[in-house]
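To assess whether ligand presence alters the predicted conformation, the chain was also submitted together with 3-methyl-2-oxobutanoic acid. Input:
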Amino acid sequence: MKKRRTILDMAEMKQRGEKISVLTAYDYPFARLMDAAGIDMILVGDSAGSVFSGYDNTLPVTLEEMLYHTRAVVRGSEQALIVADLPFMTYQIDIPDARRNAGRLIKEGGAHAVKLEGGEPMAETIRAIVDIDIPVVAHIGLTPQSVHRMGGFRVQGREEEQARKIMADARAVEAAGACAVVLEAIPRDLARQVSESLTIPTIGIGAGPACDGQVLVIHDILGLCDKYSPKFVKRYADIADTISKGIHHYIEDVKSGQFPTAEHSFK
Ligand code: KIV
């Protein structure tokens, strides 16, 4: 049995200057593959809403759906730290609600930490969850649950005022006790300044190379998502094509009677 990574390992990796590798997963087979490959952290992201369930954004995702995905990912992993997203409206209403829902992801889902979106305005909520011994990963910059306020999925922090706010958000979530912070779609120089200013690890997505770790959505890097692909995604495989060829081949075999043969049936 392999030793499971912890939030202390993530902190030590930052101190040693070792980059933290993170991918999203929503199910057992992908969790198994990335865990076996040695991924440091798996994020059960509410991006499941877009890439797994086919919604236009993450807003409709429910806590029950996140619990379902989290349990599958935990069952498929042995060594990665599992972080589960708190979906929209499961932590914004009040602190008892946020604590209860974070607790469910840990107790019923088996996650080791939760992630929530927001900076300074969420500091009190982060503190309240950390105070009941649940590690929190914060998420600032482009926060997909704020898609309507932002007027779309846009790079954040390009203007000076916005950049100052992002730096203040980063300091506030660290002071509130977050164990790491995701920096999404912000200019690389700003991400560098944030990463150098904080003692907790920064995990970048579209935030350049200076972050302490990197996260991407698994469906994006494997070419499984034919919707819009952001500039920051690097594609490492095209498995949609492989899957599609396999399915076509199966249909042809069934139609032509080439499957099943004696080899696939019983005497
Ligand atoms: O939901 C998600 O997958 C995320 C990452 C994109 C950081 O929040």
